[in-house]
Amino acid sequence: MLQCVDLEIEQGAFSLSNINFKVDKGEYLVLMGKTGSGKTTLIEAICGLRKVKKGQVLLHSNNITNLVPGQRQIGYVPQDGALFSTMTVAENIGFALKIRKWPKLKIEERVQELAVLLGVEQLLNRSVDNLSGGEKQRVALGRALSFYPQILCLDEPLSALDQATKSEIILLLQNLAQKLQLVIVHISHSESEAKKLATSILSLKDGILEKVSL
Ligand SMILES: Nc1ncnc2c1ncn2[C@@H]1O[C@H](COP(=O)(O)OP(=O)(O)OP(=O)(O)O)[C@@H](O)[C@H]1O
Question: Taking every annotated instance into account, which residue ranges of this chain make up the domain ABC transporter (predicted)?
Fold first, then answer.
């Protein structure tokens, strides 16, 4: 279970305050709000990439507010995917395992397992540079899921995709949510995407978080 309690974040003139919500295992939270409303700021604070001024981030009631990102058990797919262009697909998916010093054979097994789950087996030896948008999203998901995180944070994973690929990735996300029973937090601008994926929707407006009915 992921919980934010009285979270307050301040960066320059922009601030978020009184951020309170709870997402249980197996739930799919979609976070909405117009451009500049603070969605990325909030998700980055949950992942440990932004400083929190006040309040707490809890994972299964453990206070993780002051842990570094690598200790939080959170997989993160940033807005542009941020794949490593000097690495192959397999190396991208295995990256977090390498820095966690997993043995080579175990990394290969996990990469293969994720490649099957995400439908990128045939791409493992390719460079990520010339992959399609949908393929890049699959690889970014693989990299985020590699170390069995308990939370998966996705920053607009569908925004750069054409309609057909969007539908394909929505199906994949529905499938992952059902199979892996994680907490998923997904930023989206699209109400129709949110309605297809979410078990709950929250919206940021003027620094305040509001529940949206499905
Ligand atoms: N390091 C920073 N210093 C000062 N202000 C910042 C900093 N980072 C972001 N901001 C401001 O915080 C506000 C929220 O930005 P954020 O990227 O979280 O919005 P968003 O809702 O994710 O937007 P979008 O939908 O366009 O991605 C914006 O006004 C932005 O300019």
Answer: 2-214
